[in-house]
């Protein structure tokens, strides 16, 4: 028989923290506005990074799935080969028995 090797299932969980910033449109000094703008840019960067992580995770999962399917196919091929081998053996035995019968 054949044995399928277990897949390396590395599940990287990316925690997506959605931080909401309330931008108050009151007459504030330019220093505060700049601070809010920088905060917004940082959030955008975080979102982009999370998106990249998510994509990488999905790609990793797809790859693992493909590897699993490939192993399954290899296993099925091995099974078919074994069955064919057994059939050939049975034919040989049957042929040998037929020859013995013919000799009698």
Brief summary:
The chain is mainly alpha-helical. It has one helix spanning 30-103.
Describe the protein:
The chain has 1 helix and no strands. It is mainly α and about 100 residues long. It is about 70% helix and about 0% strand. The protein is rod-shaped and about 115 Å long. It has a domain at about 45-104.
Q: Say how many strands there are.
A: 0
Largest sheet: none
**Helix and strand composition category:** mainly alpha
Helix and strand string, N-terminal first?
Answer: H
Region (Disordered): 1-104
Biased composition (Low complexity): 10-34, 43-90
Which secondary structure elements does this structure contain, and how are they paired or packed?
Elements: H1 30-103
Descriptive labels:
104 residues, mainly alpha, 1 helix, 71% helix
